[in-house]
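Hey,
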Amino acid sequence: MKIIIDTNVAISGLLWGGAPNHILKLCRNGIVGILECAETLDEVKTVLQYPRFSDRLSALGVTAIEAFAYFMNLSTYVTSPEIIPEVIIKDPADNVFLGLASKHSASLIVSGDKHLLEVNSYNGIQIVTPSECVNVILSINK
């Protein structure tokens, strides 16, 4: 199963536990594949370097670059989507996740972002929370 995870899910999974971290573990174990493109990877790399995450990274004993390298190893790099019409007006940067999922036939878009979750689905691809994603994956892989 190919999925798209937005930046907040990636950061939460890398730095904390819970469902976002479970998704990364499922990817590490080959149960799910996370698709990323240049734009989404750049955003993860930038956000990991925000000062507000430095204490958490220190507590984990890793640098932002090490956390990013780990995430890159989990992800499958794919080509960037074409520019799509802006479905999400309030946060246009989120449209890249919709385009990425559509272009590469992802099964799910996983987000904690209200703008994405309000869309509910795009081109038949369901947009779910991290907890919902874990439930879907585990139900398929029983």
